[in-house]
Design a protein that fits this description.
two-stranded antiparallel sheet; alpha+beta; SCO family protein; SCO1/SenC; globular; 31% helix
């Protein structure tokens, strides 16, 4: 019987903050924690990235099984160099991913993420979905976490979900 569950995740081709081209296959064999946002985000992105980073710290050695990815929804401003500077000191566990507008749109569609540029005078913001997705080592969707969880709750959820979805587990 075919599943009626919507597929989350899938193929993307993006550029990491070091300038290398990546696909989901780049991260094969490791869990990935995927969050979409942008470096000019004033509240949600810094809060979620800080919370996620703290949760990974709380996991201890188990966090070594996870690759944290930050996919921009603002490719016009978030070049690999901008992402590298943003993540280096604040969120070093994260790999930033960017691409052309078309590549970002394809990644957003794959993850069923909403994000749309909202112009405000000479500047703009990009309202967006704030879920953090957990993908298994084969790149398949495991679950997502809302921004309302604490770092401790997220760490507990990650530990449980990783144990349940570890290959051979």
């Amino acid at each position: 019987m075919a599943s009626t569950r919507a597929r989350v995740g899938g193929h993307f081709e993006l550029t990491d903050h070091l300038g290398a081209r990546v696909t989901p296959g780049t991260y094969h064999g490791r869990f990935t924690l995927v969050f979409f946002g942008f470096t000019h985000c004033g509240q949600i992105c810094p809060a979620v990235l800080s919370r996620n980073s703290r949760a990974l710290d709380l996991l201890g050695p188990a966090a070594d099984e996870i690759r944290a990815l930050y996919i921009t929804v603002d490719p016009d401003r978030d070049s690999p160099e901008v992402l590298a500077a943003y993540l280096r000191d604040r969120y070093p566990r994260y790999t930033g991913l960017t691409g052309t507008a078309e590549e970002i749109e394809a990644a957003k569609r794959a993850y069923r993420v909403f994000a749309r540029r909202a112009d405000e005078l000479d500047d703009y913001t990009v309202p967006h979905t704030s879920f953090t997705f957990l993908m298994n080592p084969d790149g398949d969707y495991v679950t997502h976490y809302t921004e309302t969880l604490t770092a401790e709750e997220l760490a507990d959820g990650l530990a449980h979900d990783i144990e349940r979805h570890r290959p051979g587990g």
